[in-house]
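PROTEIN DESIGN WORKSHEET
SECTION A - STRUCTURE
LENGTH: 273
TOKENS:
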């Protein structure tokens, strides 16, 4: 079934077709814009089993991606890592999440899987174990790329050449509301209406250089289960604004700017949800 995630329909159709045909695809964009969610929904649409591999946690690449030796009833055995297990499962979409944070060792392990070889050498010995990709295993990656991500390194050119890249922008507030209405219900979407306006406002102010950060689509979706039990003001003050600078020495910090705008919407005039 087609997902309710909102992106340009032509871009989405091309993306699905490329993944279906086995082309390695990379989704780039700001953190929390929905890249990983979109990957999972594409997997479901193509009847593939989605397996997310967090590349940002692969500092010890060989043990994280391939596996490690351990004792089992006094016998030393090799325990396959989740990534190694995944490439041996038919009809799987492997999601290489946060690929921009992977180490060089991780890249060197992943490379042979993305080109004509389609295999990985588990043991570095010449006659060591070699694992081939199972039937209908496909790859898609996500990456945060840009000057605002100082912790994310630039993607290696050799790796870029192995992927077709698609930029996934943040949704507009109206699109997020439509998505919430489908994924939750109309009541939740209506109760959260001021939050969608605040979301758009933070993006506008960020683009104008008046805020140091903006609300992500992910954050908005994560607070939706709270809307029927708490007021918008309570959710805003106790959850959402925790993301922003709270420097009490600043006359106008991010949180105060957002709170002032929320007040103009009447958010703090409502004592019940």
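SECTION B - SEQUENCE
RESIDUE ASSIGNMENT:
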């Amino acid at each position: 079934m087609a997902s309710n995630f909102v992106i340009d329909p032509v871009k989405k159709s091309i993306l699905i077709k490329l993944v279906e045909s086995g082309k390695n695809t990379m989704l780039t964009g700001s953190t929390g814009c929905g890249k990983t969610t979109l990957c999972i929904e594409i997997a479901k649409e193509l009847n593939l089993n989605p397996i997310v591999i967090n590349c940002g946690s692969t500092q010890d690449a060989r043990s994280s991606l391939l596996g490690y030796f351990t004792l089992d009833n006094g016998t030393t055995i090799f325990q396959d890592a989740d990534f190694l297990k995944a490439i041996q499962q038919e009809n799987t979409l492997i999601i290489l999440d946060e690929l921009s944070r992977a180490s060089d060792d991780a890249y060197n392990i992943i490379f042979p899987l993305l080109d004509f070889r389609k295999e990985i050498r588990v043991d570095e010995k010449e006659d060591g174990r070699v694992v081939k990709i199972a039937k209908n295993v496909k790859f898609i990656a996500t990456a945060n790329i840009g000057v605002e991500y100082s912790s994310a390194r630039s993607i290696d050119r050799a790796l870029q050449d192995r992927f077709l890249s698609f930029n996934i922008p943040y949704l507009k507030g109206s699109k997020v509301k439509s998505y919430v209405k489908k994924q939750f219900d109309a009541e939740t979407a209506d109760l959260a209406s001021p939050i969608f306006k605040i979301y758009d406002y933070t993006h506008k102010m960020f683009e104008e250089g008046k805020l140091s950060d903006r609300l992500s689509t992910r954050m908005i979706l994560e607070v939706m289960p709270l809307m029927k039990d708490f007021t918008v003001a309570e959710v805003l003050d106790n959850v959402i604004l925790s993301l922003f600078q709270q420097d009490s020495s600043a006359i106008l910090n991010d949180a105060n700017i957002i709170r002032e705008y929320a007040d103009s919407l009447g958010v703090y005039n409502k004592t019940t949800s």
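SECTION C - NOTES
The radius of gyration is 22 Å.
The mean pLDDT is 85.
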